[in-house]
Amino acid sequence: MSHYVKNNLIAGEQIEYETTYHWVIFFSLRALFTLFIAPIIDKWTDEFAITNKRVVIKTGLISRKTVELNLSKIESVNVDQTVMGRIFGFGSITIIGIGGTREMFVNIRKPLEFRRKFQELC
User: Which of 29, 35, 49, 73 could link 5 by a cystine bridge, Cβ 3.0 to 4.6 Å?
Assistant: First the structure.
């Protein structure tokens, strides 16, 4: 994991926290219709990392979407968890940047830990 993040670190930057999707992604219609290939590809290729300078999120295998926000440019990291999410340790994170940038990512493993690490670094 984190090949994209490791290859795109800037001078003096180091990875502080990494996470991935929760195993719950394997229990969906998308997983069933793709014979579980789609969630496997997502889990292997999508990266969620916090460095000492920014939050870096990369999704996609063939077409790539990246979100790279400096820690100082992020207003908040919101976490949404359902009852099942609280029991099994997954949820959605929404990163809100200065100027209204809003990026949401679902079924993230340990979203509260992701937010806590972000808050520790700010």
Answer: 49
Q: Are strands 54-59 and 47-51 parallel, antiparallel or unpaired?
A: antiparallel
> Tokens 């700010």 — which residue?
122
Give the pLDDT score at 99. Answer: 87
Nearest-angstrom CA–CA distance, 79 and 71:
17
**Structural domain for 78, as ranges:** 3-121
**Residue 46 CB burial class (10 angstroms; 0-12, 13-18, ≥19):** buried
Q: What is the pTM of this model?
A: 0.90
Gap between the Cα atoms of 3 and 31, Å rounded: 24
Of the candidates 109, 113, 107, the one whose C-alpha atom is nearest the C-alpha of residue 27 is 107
